[in-house]
């Protein structure tokens, strides 16, 4: 609003910046403010003219007057925006004074417990200070209060305009019940200012704002007139008494409820401590005193001589009532807290018992499951040991059979070695220049002088003079295969049956021994045994000439660690002395068995991790 004082000495409107430019004062009307320095306000500074005691501060009547003047300005700002004005009942005003006296309000703490204890429920709330310095009368008080209101309305950016929003909250069709509270700080420097309201459906009668007509001029009595029309004050007093009656009725109802609660929870005064008993007794005494005083005052209310005295006593009674109401409310709250604590303790105890029973049931289930698991594990382990022992016995039997086969092979090898020694002796004799002779068996007509030995005639070519035989390699143990050039028995032109050199037949691949499962399952730290591929041929490859020749064209000689091609193997076989098919088969069998059971068996082992 930006209006003048509407002909009144005391301002009724307070400037509020536009909503779209909240922090700007560019449109303010400088005439629209209280100016205590103006001569029009001189009467306010005369002795006895509505002065304020600098030591004790505002009286309760002055606080009411200032609260009505401030809320009147806020309501004008609200109505200018089309909002419903606030109302202020006597009860709300008294609750606001309790809130202003709380320490949390002085330190700007919107403490929920304190708010609830003062008003009975949560509130929209503003907290601020009014500078108490240099306040000598109500005009000074209103001027200082307006400075605080103006800051909350127009300079509230640091609070995100929360104070402004509370003052200008849209309450719809509801005239919310609001009140200002004031309390002088201990050092006398400031008044704690509180503003509270809620959006419940309040009992808004009687409305203290109806008394604005008494204060809006706020001018002192001038001239020689000393007659005061007390009709307005009498009406107001009647309203206050009516309000007090309502308050007393409410308190009596609360007392009855408390007595009913006392019966329900077996309450008696012995359950309260000494302070609580004293508060309870004082509250009852005060209520009875006020009720007696009310009845006495109603009889004399219309007598002029008793009006001011009645007003003073009423104010004192209201102050006492407020204090006792607070004490009674605290006693009720203490009782409720004690009852709630007992109920909660009983609930917690029952929950603990239920939880313990559930835990015991779970424990029993877990123990049964554990025993079952142990029984199953023991049964499985015993069966695994039996199975492993059976496999081990089977393997041991096969090993015994293999040992017998090895012994038989050793005998064959021994015989083959003897025959090999004879063959080597023949080779030595040939190297020394002795020519082998074959006796005449009578099949030819003349004796044939044998030629020097050469590579065997395959039957399709005539006999040629062989070259000087090379010395056999008897010490080469390197990795490169060497084809020996040992001389063979010469062909004397006679058919001697099986004495002709022939390409050896590939021996039949012997069946692999059944190794079974040589590991023992169920023993920690052991892995199934595996073959060492660096010193033996894997079980998946046949340890025979036949399988090696078919797979990669090479023959694996296990005891020498040398790999030769199939052609090299054939050449070497053809250049060895032919001592008959029986010996050849023995040598071949020797190689095959050595590959199967010799070094392979010696190098086979078991790994542990």
Automatic annotation (TrEMBL):
Biased composition (Low complexity): 447-458, 481-491, 501-511
Domain Gram-positive cocci surface proteins LPxTG: 572-608
Source organism superkingdom: Bacteria
Biased composition (Polar residues): 459-468, 530-557
Compositional bias segments (type: Basic and acidic residues): 420-429, 470-480
Record organism: Ligilactobacillus salivarius
Keyword Coiled coil: yes
Coiled-coil ranges (or none): 227-275
InterPro entries reported for this sequence: CAP_sf (IPR035940), LPXTG_anchor (IPR019931), Surf_Exclu_SEC10/PgrA (IPR027607)
Protein name, UniProt field: Putative mucus binding protein
Region (Disordered): 420-583
Keyword line: Cell wall, Coiled coil, Peptidoglycan-anchor, Secreted, Signal
